[in-house]
Amino acid sequence: MAERLSLSELNGTVKKVLAANFTAPVWVIGEISEINIHSNGHCYLTLIEKGESEDRIVAQARATIWSYTFRMLRPFFETMTGQQLTDGIKVLLQVSVEFHEMYGFSLNVRNIDPTYTLGDQALKRREIIRRLTDEGVLTMNKELELPLVPQKIAIISSPSAAGYEDFMEQLANNGNGYKFYTKLFPAVMQGNQAEQSIVEALDRIYPYEDFFDVVVIIRGGGSQVDLSCFDNYNIAYHITQFPLPVLTGIGHEKDDSIADLVAHTRLKTPTAVAEFILDGVIAFEERINLVQQETISLVENRMEEEKSLLEDLTGELSQLVRDQLGNKKRELMQRTWRFQQEIKLTLQNSEHQLGKKLQRAGFLVDRIFYMHRQKLEKARNMVDITIPASLLGKREQLDHYLEKFRHLSAKRIGNEKHRIELAGQKAMLTDPSNILKKGYSITTVRGKLVKDIALLKNDEVMNTRFSNGAVLSKIIEIKQSDKNDN
Fold first, then answer.
1. Could you report the per-residue pLDDT of 168-202, keeping only the tens digit for each?
2. Residue 376 CB contacts under 8 Å (≥ 6 apart), including other chains
3. Are residues 96 and 157 in the same domain?
4. CA 243, CA 227: separation in Å to the nearest integer?
5. Domain span at 374
6. In what order do the strands lie in the sheet with 152-157?
């Protein structure tokens, strides 16, 4: 029958075996799964080991750092590694193996090797960067186009952070008077809660991607221990996938965090982020002013060129107008002279014809009178009688009619002469040069007299003749009068 042992005997045996095999402290590698610091200063750890190919715990043990040892190990570790002694990190601990009959197996931590954790941190950092690279997202946020004038800014920061106040002060009191719209999305910026808090802040901004221009993640400086949360895959991945450019001003004094590495633009401090935004706006305004000056210069040069060209064209047009006016003046003078000559010739012909008619009429009257007189004389010679008084009365009547005819002829000739003189005066009054002197004008297009507006076309050149010169004008618009207009 197998030997029977009490529980205390079994635990005592295990304690003796462990004490016999672990006579000196040993170095143990493990990941801190849980850490609790008691009010009495003792630190209680839960150490685990995970499988290489899968995230499965293959071993677990409790460890204790007594208060007097913890007071020395903690600052030493954090100073050397730049990060807190917290859960989720791998550590190399010197421990003594102990077994208590009531409390079971435990490890008593005597020392810690920070160089191992530093190597593990670097390895972890390289692994995150490699993972982001393999996924093809490492530079995705950098590929976004930064707005020329980012004025609507979403801010992820702690509301009480000095860096946030510095950022707002820098933007609000800029010397150029630029105005910005800012919205704070509060987040925890250090410690174990930072990852979830920052990711949630990004998620709250996402629905307003069409409103904001950029996202700014700022923190007012701190030790490398405080900023270690930004070497986080989840935060980095969310930044790479964000549809807006992300600017970081986390405050690292030395190396960039992974969040800095994947952000669109990394600046050293929150104030530097504000200066970067302001510098971009100033550069844009300077480019606008430069373009404005160049545009003004180009316009002025073009205006000078056009002015010079216009002056040349004006000179050519003036000469052309003078030539045209000279030609038209000579043509008008020639027409006027021909018209006057025609009037004179017509008057002369009329006078000549009238004279001939009057001469012929007088000749006929004299001939008739002479014939009657000859007949009377012949009759007197043939008949030697005294002409009766009745015949003498006929002769006197004939003389009377002859005198009356001469008077009427002279009156008719006078009337005709007066009518011809009136016709001459009327012809002189209708002389174009005399009409122009009364304030009228004569307009021609293509050498033809304009009597109807329907004959005109837009852009045609009109020649308007006045008594003392002429004007060439270009038709811009033709307006026909309403038939009902008076």
1. 999 999 988 899 999 999 999 887 788 899 999 99
2. 387, 391, 395
3. no
4. 25
5. 320-430
6. 181-186, 152-157, 214-218, 246-249, 265-266
